[in-house]
User: Which sequence fits this backbone?
């Protein structure tokens, strides 16, 4: 509890002294403040006993199919003798463990792979070390630090933790959302201030037709990492698979805030437990797609997770697993499968985007 009080109190002090801060700075503060931010300090975040559960923790089917995707892309690229198998934000390391198990029948793939994990949380690094044994692993604090080599890159629920900015349209003008403190010096709230000239011009052109009260989210950090991934893939070769919850921009979508906080598997108000709840936003897949294209990569999707997993033959794999399973295991496999695939669970909200250096037929890369 002390952690929460410290972060919230020091944030209020800071705002009362220096004025409001952007949504971006707020997210970065809540998630990454040294020793106190949610992702720099908390352990036991992911899983049934943690705050939220992710696809690799729901079912081994997920990591196994991501593994087959990586193997396929490596073979389609001519089975290079050396390559980097990169995962961004591996959490408990479950997806990498399942991926490696599912591909161990191709020893050359394992021999060629240098595993590079991008992670900021020390407790997670320890867990990853425990889960992924018999492989040499190198850890990096940020993607930019990973050497520029041929890479196959995977990221599940990584991009959604990166900070964003928000802008609101009012009276036909664009304002920037900022975190401010009420006169009582106790309560934080989202306030609007005049946006900078550059942003106002950008939004006025790109989102001219949006009605008042629309909120546009700009994910500069995610876009920057995507630009680096695309550049690396285009210049050095390779592929990337991004899976996350998010949306595709369209005229029919309402532009609202997607900021959310999750604690103990429940949504909680974003200012309630700063540093102790997971604050994220939905990923704008249109924007990731545009950035990867801008840097000349081949881009596939986004498609829904259920569609991607079907294309990767999840039914076949599920049937194989259940053949050898006890009644109890069978129930678990089917309930995991349903959670990954159902439209009202992870099947539709989660989307998949792939980026490659060579141009393939969509069905060759699971799209
Ligand atoms: N991919 C895992 C975990 C998702 S949670 C899964 O699907 O279960 C997000 C992960 O990203 C965690 O491992 C977290 O510690 C890591 N992370 C959060 N912010 C990060 C940052 N700025 N740079 C690198 N890793 C980060």
Assistant:
């Amino acid at each position: 509890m002390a952690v929460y009080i410290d972060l919230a109190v020091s944030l209020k002090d800071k705002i009362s002294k220096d004025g409001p801060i952007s949504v971006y700075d707020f997210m970065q503060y809540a998630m990454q403040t040294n020793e106190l931010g949610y992702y720099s300090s908390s352990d036991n975040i992911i899983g049934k006993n943690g705050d939220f559960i992710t696809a690799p923790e729901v079912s081994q089917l997920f990591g196994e199919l991501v593994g087959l995707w990586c193997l396929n892309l490596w073979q389609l690229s001519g089975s290079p003798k050396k390559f980097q198998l990169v995962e961004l934000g591996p959490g408990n390391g479950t997806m990498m463990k399942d991926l490696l198990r599912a591909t161990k029948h191709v020893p050359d793939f394992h021999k060629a792979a240098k595993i590079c994990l991008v992670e900021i949380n020390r407790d997670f690094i320890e867990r990853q070390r425990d889960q992924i044994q018999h492989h040499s692993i190198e850890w990096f604090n940020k993607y930019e630090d990973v050497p520029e080599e041929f890479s196959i890159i995977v990221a599940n629920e990584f991009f959604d933790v990166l900070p964003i900015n928000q802008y609101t349209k009012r009276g036909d003008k664009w304002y920037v959302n900022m975190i401010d403190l009420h006169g009582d010096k106790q309560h934080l709230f989202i306030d609007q201030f005049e946006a900078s000239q550059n942003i106002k011009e950008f939004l006025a052109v790109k989102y001219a037709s949006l009605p008042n009260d629309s909120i546009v989210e700009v994910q500069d950090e995610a876009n920057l990492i995507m630009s680096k991934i695309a550049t690396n893939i285009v210049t050095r070769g390779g592929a990337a698979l991004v899976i996350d919850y998010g949306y595709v921009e369209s005229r029919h979508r309402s532009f609202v805030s997607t900021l959310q906080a999750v604690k103990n598997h429940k949504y909680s108000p974003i200012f309630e437990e700063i540093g102790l709840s997971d604050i994220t936003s939905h990923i704008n897949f249109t924007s990731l797609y545009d950035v990867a294209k801008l840097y000349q990569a081949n881009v596939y999707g986004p498609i829904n997770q259920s569609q991607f997993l079907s294309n990767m033959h999840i039914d076949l794999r599920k049937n194989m697993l259940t053949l050898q399973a006890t009644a109890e295991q069978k129930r678990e496999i089917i309930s995991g499968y349903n959670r990954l695939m159902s439209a009202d669970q992870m099947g539709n909200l989660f989307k998949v985007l792939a980026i490659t250096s060579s141009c393939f037929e969509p069905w060759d890369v699971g799209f």
Summary: The first strand starts at residue 21 and ends at 22. The mean pLDDT is 94. The two ends are 46 Å apart (CA to CA).
